[in-house]
Design goal:
alpha/beta; 11-stranded parallel β-sheet
């Protein structure tokens, strides 16, 4: 047990202020000397032992009736280790613009609103913590290796990371696996992470916001949100070095940058979203599934097409489905890939059936002009209907229910004979491609 007599002057200030929740500010007023980056050099007049903070948080000091106790310390050098393992805090804890000698250990602690805003910490061990009735405030903090550990944490409010800098190059800068956050994680306004930001299976009541953030984890995952659940996922980061994993995440609204291609290779298989912002033409959004490091996956295309379809943009939805078939074609064997090229060129895999009409019109004009210049021979001169080059060409192109001229007339010159055979083959090819393409579309609903 700590006695009041053994407290240093700054510790007595904190102890006395605890009962009424007043702030104890040990700063000098000189911006240069008050910068926590140089907190290691602060003297005894600005030093507070971590065990004193712990004693207050656990209710070691008297609380005046009608007052709300708070540990609110600014600009201090916190010596020793703040250890609150399995502890239950009796008050709000705010340690702002402080310098920590050792990594705080808060494992499985039950805390009130807690903040380290603007402080410098050599890591933060806060896995399995519960923060009741407030936020975990890490705004403007600088946390170095081994990073911030918050897996299995439960926060009633939000995790605030604005202008925070988490640095653990080659490792994990923030481990928030399986976090449950009542509001969300706010990492905009200058948030930086050197090392992976891990949020797999996190459950956010509102949003994950990374607008303007800078994430760097070269050669490995920069952001992992696999199986994340949130209402809003805002990934408009300023810079991402490394990969992004969104596999099987579920969000209501997905905000993406309009970069083309994406700023980072992004895994999107299984990602489900209700709306995609900002709204852009399909050609601008197709870069996301095309640049998936896992290669071709059908679900990302189907999800994107469904999003455009829900907005009534049928043309954009068809463009996405056509792009899907073209990407899928790259995974097929040579014969199937060749047939895919035929389907694409003739009917756009069924999503552009008008192409068959264009080919039919072009071949009809070509055949009619060529046959008009030739001299046909009647199979049965006394019975043959008058020769018409246009009708004759159509009869060759239409494989079923002929028009009566294909068998009644023929050409003896090799070029026109070859053209006639080619038109018959083209007719069957166009018909087969059209039926195959339309069937593919109908089977997909």
């Amino acid at each position: 047990m700590l006695s009041y007599a053994e407290l240093t002057p700054p510790e007595r200030l904190l102890w006395d202020a605890f009962a009424t929740g007043e702030r104890v500010d040990l700063r000098t007023g000189d911006p240069a000397s008050d910068d926590p980056a140089g907190g290691e050099r602060w003297g005894e007049d600005r030093s507070v032992r971590a065990e004193v903070v712990r004693a207050l948080v656990l209710g070691g000091a008297e609380v005046r009736p009608g007052e709300t106790p708070v540990v609110h310390l600014v600009g201090a050098r916190v010596t020793g280790r703040l250890k609150l393992v399995f502890a239950e805090a009796c008050c709000v804890l705010r340690l702002e613009r402080c310098w920590f000698e050792q990594r705080p250990q808060l494992y499985a602690a039950r805390l009130r609103a807690t903040g380290f805003a603007g402080s410098r910490l050599p890591g933060l061990g806060a896995s399995r913590i519960t923060v009741e009735g407030g936020n975990l405030d890490l705004m403007h903090t600088r946390i170095t290796a081994p990073g911030a550990t918050l897996y299995d944490a439960r926060l009633d409010g939000a995790l605030l990371l604005q202008d925070a800098h988490l640095s653990n190059p080659g490792g994990v800068a923030l481990d928030g696996a399986r976090m449950e956050v009542g509001s969300g994680i706010v990492g905009d306004n200058g948030f930086r992470a050197e090392g992976e930001v891990r949020l797999p299976e996190a459950r956010l009541g509102e949003a994950l916001i990374l607008t303007g953030a800078r994430l760097a984890s070269p050669g490995r995952a920069a952001l992992t949100c696999r199986n994340l659940r949130a209402r809003v996922l805002d990934l408009r980061a300023e810079q991402v070095t490394g990969t992004v994993d969104l596999r099987h995440a579920r969000v209501d609204v997905l905000h993406l940058p309009d970069a083309d291609p994406p700023k980072a290779p992004t895994h999107v298989d299984g990602l489900v979203y209700g709306a995609l912002e900002p709204h852009l033409p399909a050609a601008r959004r197709l870069t996301l599934p095309r640049h998936d490091p896992d290669g071709y996956r059908p679900q990302p295309y189907q999800q994107l097409a469904a999003t455009y379809q829900s907005l009534g943009h049928d043309h954009e939805a068809r463009a996405v489905r056509l792009a899907q078939q073209r990407h899928r074609r790259t995974t097929l064997r040579p014969a199937a890939r060749a047939w895919g090229h035929v389907l694409d060129a003739t009917v756009g895999y069924g999503y552009r059936p008008w192409l068959a009409g264009a080919w039919l019109a072009l071949l009809t004009l070509l055949g009619a002009a060529a046959f008009a210049a030739g001299e046909p021979t009647a199979a049965k001169p006394d019975e043959a209907a008058p020769f018409n080059p246009l009708v004759y060409t159509l009869d060759l192109l239409i494989p079923i229910a002929g028009l009566g001229l294909r068998n009644a007339w023929h050409f003896t010159t090799p070029p026109l004979q070859g053209l006639a055979y080619a038109l018959v083959a083209a007719g069957w090819l166009l018909t087969t491609a059209l039926v195959a393409g339309v069937t593919r579309v109908l089977n997909r609903g």
